Amino acid sequence: MSNNVGNAVDDDERVKGMSPLRKAMIRPELGAICGTILVFVFFFLTARDSGMFGAAGVLNWTLVSAQFAIIAVGACMLMIAGEFDLSVGSMIGFAGIILALLTISVGLPTWLAIIITFIVCIGLGAVNGWLVIKTGLPSFIVTLATLFILRGLTIFAAIATTRKTIIGGMREASEGDWLAGLFGGKIFKGFFQWLGDAGMIDVFSRGVKKGMPVVEGIPMLIVWALGLIIIAHIVLTKTRFGNWIFASGGDAQAARYAGVPVNRTKILMFMFTAFCATVFAVCQVMEFGSAGADRGILKEFEAIISVVIGGALLTGGYGSVIGAALGALIFGVVQQGLFFAGVESSLFRVFLGILLLLAVILNTYIRRMITGEK
Amino acid sequence: MVEPIIRMKNIEKHFGLVIALAGVSVDIMAGECHCLLGDNGAGKSTFIKTMSGVHKPSKGEIIFSGEAMKFERPRDAIAAGVATVYQDLAMIPLMSVSRNFFMGNEPIKKFAGISFFDHEYANRVTMQEMKKMGINLRGPDQAVGTLSGGERQTVAIARAVHFGAKVLILDEPTSALGVRQTSNVLATIDKVRNQGIAVVFITHNVRHAMAVGDRFTVLNRGKTLGTAIRGEITPEELQDLMAGGQELASLEGSLGGTV
Which chain B residues touch A8 with a CB distance below 8 Å? Predict the structure, then answer.
């Protein structure tokens, strides 16, 4: 390998060796992994008998975690690329209302309305990114403006056209639609029916659903969350574009000098964040059968908290999608677990705050070890 | 006489009303270390940014290997073989050495029709190139932030050489370094020059310049004061030229020639 090395020293006495265990431990997700274990142990001890770890309970917190995860994946990629998007929550409300207006008021078939909604929202994401790049302003400010503009427009559009802020009738309108099923449907129904019949999971004992399992199938929202996590993780760690994302967030100028198309990378990440918000919105509209102009409030902060618990650096250039997904899982389990454990729900925020603080302290420590930051 | 690899002819650069360069001509030969000296504000940075495609000259010609070149973007200059290593913008500290090494030039491996970053190749080449430069890494995934300033400069130089640089521009690579790191970087410059690459070494430290330079060009207030060959000029004369021949002369006595 190195026959042209003359008198290279084999080991630098000042570089300490690292044990394989330590090397495997020291990773950006370590904080989130510890947090996840802690949270599960805690709830296993306090809420074991509440049904939290039964089939219906597991589905409950998995679904909530998946909701957080969809938004967190987008926020994570964008944060690693060195930018923020505070307009995610408003984008969720906006996408839902656009979809409902196109379907109910305009009367378009649901699949066409979904496609148009995606195009409009991803376009708005590109506008966000373009504004940040062109003005050179912090994305924090630009997207804070978009947060208000989009929320205002959403409420205005809903009231001006239907005199209501909630538009219903989506379930009936999208009955049998092929694309709607991709967001609102459930998979593996037969498998869960079989599990119910075989007595492996509980079945309803009375009412119209008598004999059906308590868990009908896996909601598409969870499938989307898993798909987005896996794809985003692969793109980030295993592709050329992933290297550009890290480089753009790490030091945009140094990346430009090395020939990385920083502007294009950042704008694409804004578009991806908007895409994730729209996936969330469409799933939610299909699940509830209605769209509300106030949907998605504070989602941007929940996403950022998940990402930070997951070990990403607020200033960009460092982080992990797996970490962000674990952050979302912690978030979901804590929120639903406190309910199962019968704890006063206002304590959720206290618990979350403490968790956030602990995770960030641990993450900062780990990151310093890895990157040699001062 | 051998044709210079890059010939900058009467380069002028104006920023609005400010004339940063007022007609600078420099020839750079392959396999030489050409030192560009000058005090702060002399126009060194503007000059090398013109050479590396960051700025377009207001007037003048850049002739690269005998052909007139117009660099629109840094990427054009890099593609032609002009690589620049900036003092503090060489590397991204949060990223691993191998990710930094291949930043903007990521090796690709196809799998099921999809292009993936070839980490295996990247890691192997990085370790190999680092060893050649005499840097021992714990592993290719070690973050650049854990390296010293001199090692970072060396990684950046090794990267430029690996990707086929014919002209290597070093922007004050030694100005923030300690004695030992400086000597490492100077040794690296010597290795690179011996491979036939033209090195343009920007500095305002005459001793560092004298240690490795073959030829010396002094810039002052946007103009060249001529190019000198090694052995034809003393450090004192260089120092005088940089300072414009005036202020330092009167200080010389009290400082005892140690600047």
Answer: 131-132, 134, 136
Interface of B with A in 39-68 (CB under 8 A): none
Chain A residues within an 8 Å CB radius of B136: 8-12, 15
CATH number of the B16-88+161-196+205-255 domain: 3.40.50.300
- Return the pLDDT at A27: 79
Judge whether A260 is closer than 8 Å to chain B, CB to CB.
yes
Model pLDDT, residue B258 = 53
Shortest Cα distance from A336 to chain B (angstroms)?
A: 36
A237 falls in which pLDDT band (50, 70, 90)? very high
Which residue type, as a one-letter code, is found at position A317? G
Would you call B136 an interface residue with chain A, using a CB distance cutoff of 8 Å? yes
Q: Measure the CA–CA gap between A260 and B227, rounded to whole angstroms.
A: 36
Cβ neighbourhood burial of A47 (10 Å; 0-12, 13-18, 19+): buried
User: Is the pLDDT reported for residue A219 higher than 50?
Assistant: yes
- B chain contacts of residue A373, beta-carbon cutoff 8 Å: 93-94, 145
Nearest to B60 by CA among B23, B94, B20: B23
Q: What per-residue confidence (pLDDT) applies to A3?
A: 41
Closest CA to A368 of A327, A294, A298, A313: A313
Chain B contact present for A307, CB below 8 A: no
CA distance B233 to B37: 13
A&B contacts, CB < 8 Å: 97
Q: Does the beta carbon of A210 lie under 8 angstroms from any beta carbon of chain B? A: no
Find the closest chain A residue to B110 by CA distance.
A239
| Residue A251 C-alpha, separation from nearest chain B C-alpha, in angstroms | 6
Which tokens hold the place of B128?
Answer: 């190999």
CB A89 within 8 A of CB A298: yes
Q: In chain A, which ranges are E strands?
A: 166-167, 186-187, 218-219, 291-292
**Is residue A231 classed as helix, strand or coil in its secondary structure?**
helix
Lowest mean pLDDT among A1-10, A77-86, B26-35: A1-10
> Which regions of chain B are under pLDDT 70?
1, 89-90, 244-259
The phi-psi region of residue A317 (left if phi > 0; otherwise alpha if psi is between -120 and 50; otherwise beta) is: left
Q: What is the DSSP string of B173-207?
A: TTTT--HHHHHHHHHHHHHHHHTT-EEEEEES-HH
* pLDDT for the residue numbered A2: 39
Tens digit of each residue's pLDDT (9 = 90 or more) over A180-209: 888 988 888 888 888 888 777 777 777 777
- Using DSSP's 3-state secondary structure scheme, residue A324 falls into helix
For residue B254, the model assigns a pLDDT of 54
Domains defined for chain A, CATH in brackets: 29-44+51-369 (1.10.3470)
ipTM of this predicted complex? Answer: 0.81
* CA distance linking residue B23 with residue A293, whole number of Å: 63
Q: How far apart are CA A163 and CA A125, in angstroms?
A: 28
